[in-house]
Predict the structure.
Amino acid sequence: MVLQDLGRRINAAVTDLTRSQNLDEKAFDSMVKEICNALLEADVNVKLVAGLRQSIRRSVNFKELAPGVNKKRVIQKAVFDELVKLVDPHAEPFKPRKGKPNIIMFVGLQGAGKTTTCTKLARWYQARGFKSCLVCADTFRAGAFDQLKQNATKARIPYFGSLTNTDPVAVAAEGVEKFKRERFEVIIVDTSGRHRQEDALFEEMVQIQQAVRPQQTVMVLDASIGQAAEAQSRAFKEAADFGAIIITKTDGAAAGGGAISAVAATHTPIVFIGSGEHLLDLERFDPRAFVGKLLGMGDMQGLMEHVQSLKLDQKDTMKHIASGVFTVRDLRDQLSNITKMGPLSKMAGMIPGLSNAMQGLDDADSAAKLRRMIAITDSMTDKELDSDGKLFVQEPTRMTRVARGSGTSVREVEELLTQQQTMATMAKRMKGGMANMQRAQGAM
Ligand code: GDP
């Protein structure tokens, strides 16, 4: 999405400043201005941008910075933190309870991606051990039920809907009752959207909500919604008081800033983002990771900060990443460091790709998985550890040998190498940015 352009501009503004010889207040002001212009052009609400501008200025008080403090680092951190605040409403996302019916209702305009996202979310919960199903309460749009049916069948999710009953409230209530009786745990209700906010749509939404009494109402918002996002989300919030937002089509060409404004206007967390038309294109939304990615640092920013605070020996890996390299040994070092860092689920979330591998596992399971991954690397030769991993593809018998030596499976070895490839690709992408960060830190 064009959010990447936004990220690039913000990053460039910060980098320009941190490279400039005269790091004075004037240079700082023009950086803040450039960041704000970039945000405005990406459709972020004017008031929010003004607020951000003030906060960045407030958090970096030039005159009061003690001599010897690394100004560049302080500025980078301030920009990062303020952007995180912008997308983080500090509200806990909904957690379904096992063994109970959890009803989730979707609302949003037509075409926002509700039907597609319903199925993605049902699959997401299904993959995490919740017995999940779908109810189609969209009796307005011809073909809505067919679409849901097709998606649900593909994902093997049980569904309910009616081709003859045109009363969405009755269909929703009937579907939810049926699935409750059948002891489903996550029951997702898709409602109809209209082209605009219309009174009839809101009325129907409220009636369905009263009939099925959802634990969570989710508003689906198209990333391309732009300036209309704020008014729209406020209107939906007033009528349906949704507790979470899912932004769809983040893979598209939209500016995306409108979505950020919607979050801030309604103090509602974005819980997931849709990143494609495929069933698996649904990602957990994490503000720090989001801003990190926005600024082109990947999720590694948080990891780096954490690692630095722990004073672990990271020199080689950092040097490698700065030069765009990430070897199997680098991955091994990271994995063994993680075991020293505490809350595994949190740490894994910071390493791109590893969070997927750990999804759905609790800390004990994650620790066991991590030990197996380390065991795999322990069975590798130095040549293999210091390689970019490609020699395993050229000579697959190496994988068999390592799997046997570590008491794991070839599939697990492959998984680890995929992980390392993800990191290597990121390292390549981050080459410039990391080198800058290192320079900045070196000057501390
Ligand atoms: P609804 O009217 O709100 O139920 O919207 P649909 O689920 O029918 O989605 C409208 C269109 O958006 C469909 O063509 C979907 O394939 C597409 N869509 C939904 N989510 C995404 C996404 O995250 N990325 C992309 N590229 N397309 C999406």
User: Anything to note?
Assistant: The two ends are 35 Å apart (CA to CA). Confidence is low (pLDDT under 50) at residues 297-302, 434-444. The pocket of guanosine-5'-diphosphate is lined by residues 108, 110-117, 193, 248-249, 251-252, 274-277, 281 (CB under 6 Å).
